[in-house]
Specification:
The chain is α+β, with helices and mostly antiparallel strands. The strands form two sheets. A three-stranded antiparallel beta sheet has the order 3-5-4. Strands 1-2 form a two-stranded antiparallel sheet. The longest helix has 15 residues. The mean pLDDT is 84.
């Protein structure tokens, strides 16, 4: 799952509309309104909405008239909660680089990751431990070898942050 800049903007606009408090003005959460608000082509907006729905991050809900509103699913809310509750994970270039490398390789040894990113091994393993405790990375041990790969949520987050 990869989030282009346009797809990310649409997802975040829907999230903002879904989580706006009472009395707050929120962006529209239907295709035409999103396209207008974000200054996007309607067909591009529709294509990204379809992809987000297929990835179970948003859910299309028919409303009055011919409009379909889009709401964040539980999976989409999980991504938003991770971003909101753990901003430090997402602000660091090193963690972002680690997520991108693991996404690219599918599975990698910690020492190879350290070499590829020119990190000290202790720093690489500290970042991997942080990412693992946040549920974005999991490790698999085979004898003395430990490989790291992304969890489903980690894969989604990597798609959002590393596109």
């Amino acid at each position: 799952m990869v989030f282009s800049d346009t797809k990310r903007r649409i997802f975040l606009a829907i999230a903002e509309a879904n989580f706006a408090g009472d009395g707050e003005e929120s962006p529209p959460n239907h295709a035409y309104g999103l396209a207008t608000e974000l200054d996007l082509n309607r067909s591009t907006t529709g294509r990204h909405l379809k992809t987000l729905a297929e990835e179970d991050l948003i859910e299309p809900i028919p409303s009055s008239g011919q409009r379909t509103e889009y709401h964040i699913t539980d999976s989409g809310a999980s991504i938003i909660n991770i971003v909101q509750s753990n901003p430090d994970i997402f602000l660091g270039d090193t963690k972002r680089d680690i997520l991108a490398l693991i996404a690219e390789t599918a599975s990698i040894h910690g020492y190879a990751l350290a070499e590829d990113l020119s990190l000290q091994k202790s720093n690489a393993y500290r970042h991997l431990s942080d990412l693992e405790s946040e549920g974005l990375v999991r490790s698999q041990t085979n004898g003395r070898n430990k490989k790291y790969n992304l969890t489903d949520i980690g894969n989604t987050v990597a798609g959002i942050l590393c596109a």
